[in-house]
Amino acid sequence: MKKIGFIGLGIMGKAMALNLIKAGFSVTVWNRDLDKCAELVAKGAQQANSPRELTETCDITFTIVSDPAAALAICEGPDGVIAGIGNGRSYIDMSTVDDVTSQKIAKSITEAGGRFLEAPVSGTKKPAEDGTLIILAAGDESLYQDALPAFNVMGKMSPYIGEVGQGAKMKLVVNMMMGGMLSIFSEGMSLGLKAGLDGPQILDILGAGAISNPMFKGKGEMLLAENYTTSFPLKHMQKDLRLAISLGEQLNLALPNAAISNEIFKQAIQAGFSDEDIAAIFKLYK
């Protein structure tokens, strides 16, 4: 069995790495805050002292970090991923970044002698814990085939999308739609509640009709309970909307609804909801 490395033990990465350990993979972990490695080590993981040390000793290294800057920082420098990759070892970046960042990382990895796959995930904390993420893989197809046993542990679906950059674009399309839907959903829920309608009944009616979807049910229950425990940080949704709008600009495509949603999420960040769940956008309308 291939040795697996895992970098980034935040809300998503911790759950994903734990599932790999439970499935019997040999897993080595690293996180900028090394204290976050302790729980996984207690479950059977090894701990590396740097990204370089991890990639030097693992066949396939997975990474999931917060944004393009973090994804690049993990790779660079004398103790970074690129310094340790070589000799046919492989790197799979599961972070949500733009296609340009992904292509830059891919170039550096392949020039260092490694294989590269981007594999951003659609799903939040609960799907990560349950191993039901949707993994959007693009890049080296031979690495995709080698990674499928691990993908099958972490996700319920892992389509191969094509060349590097296509996975990043797909993820931005998905999250752009999600951000826009959550924005209008929050407005609608606020309108209904202020008009004296029963909140659970609104959700029941939405769930029975053409616009029924799991996000409305899950986030609706959160906002009615005023429980904004984080499964998808609000600041990360705003980052994804910004990256989607930038992609639209590259393609000379106006995205007015996404632009409005981005401004609403920026307002939520300015209001202090940055680290709360994306459902906290509702608090703007209370």
- What order do the helices and strands follow? EHEHEHEHHEHEEHEEHEHHHHH
Q: Could you estimate the helical fraction of the residues in percent? A: 40-55%
The count of helical stretches stands at 13
Task: State Rg.
Answer: 20 Å
What structural class should be given to the helix and strand makeup?
alpha/beta
Major sheet description: 7 strands, mixed
Got a strand count?
10
How would you describe the shape? globular
Our measurement of the CA-to-CA distance between the termini, rounded to an integer number of angstroms, reads 53 Å
| Mean of residue pLDDT values | 97
List unreliable stretches of 5+ residues.
none
What percentage of the residues does DSSP assign to strands (E)? 5-15%
Strand order of the largest sheet: 3-2-1-4-5-6-9
Textual characterization of the structure:
This protein has 286 residues and is of the alpha/beta class. The chain has 13 helices and ten strands. It has helices at 11-22, 38-42, 51-57, 68-75, 81-84, 99-111, 125-130, 141-154, 166-194, 199-208, 214-225, 234-250, 256-270, and strands at 3-7, 26-30, 46-47, 60-63, 90-93, 115-118, 121-122, 133-135, 138-139, 155-157. A seven-stranded mixed beta sheet has the order 3-2-1-4-5-6-9, with helices on both faces. The protein has a three-stranded mixed beta sheet with strand order 7-8-10. Helix 1 links the parallel strand 1 (3-7) and strand 2 (26-30). Helix 9 (166-194) crosses helix 11 (214-225) and helix 9 (166-194) packs across helix 12 (234-250). The termini are far apart. The relative contact order is 0.10. The mean pLDDT is 97.
